[in-house]
Amino acid sequence: MHILSTNLGTARPNPALRPEFTGHHKQPVDQLVVFDPGPRGGEHASGVVGDYIGDLEHHGGDMKAVYAVGREELDAWSERLGSPLANGWMGENLTTAGVDLPSAVVGSRWEVGTALLQVSLARIPCRTFQAVAGREGWIKEFTLAGGAGTYLRVLRGGTIRPGDELRLVHVPEHGVTARELFRARTLEPGLAGHVLRAAGDLDEHNIEILRSRAG
Q1: Which parts of the sequence are annotated with region: Disordered (predicted)?
Q2: 137: alpha, beta or left, given left = phi > 0 and alpha = psi -120 to 50?
Q3: pTM beyond 0.90
């Protein structure tokens, strides 16, 4: 399990028009410096130095500091869409190889480079993502397929480079995966009660959403 590509987004016109600019179009760079950006809406947005986030209401903050997607997931989507997808196409900061990220347990911790990262939240698709994909019905298609990758918290800041190994150092006993969190937040509210077993590794916003879905 290792990092295949480190990717950074700069401000570009948003094809969805609002917000005006987006950092979704991420390009490979030699390294990333990651840090805890604090709560969403604070002084910083992304947990990656130099990474641009346009939608500060829904993106960024400590629970969405870094986004990771597996190269295997990109390859599967490439086949599905009939077009090759470059590293960073999903808007991910980290493109990994050899790890099934959606199956990662929420709250799991990975050492990578000099940083310590923690699996935090599922990525919920937005209209900017659909506009970038340029595919009608993309949000529904992405959701039905179960999403891709996972967001990560930064527990210890550091530098990450392509080729760095992902070293799993902790897995919570609750066993709730990023994929189950995604499904509970989207099409399968019946999973919400199960996913709430991971409440100790979730933020209050998502706990409230899951409790409302659990009834």
Answers
A1: 1-23
A2: left
A3: yes
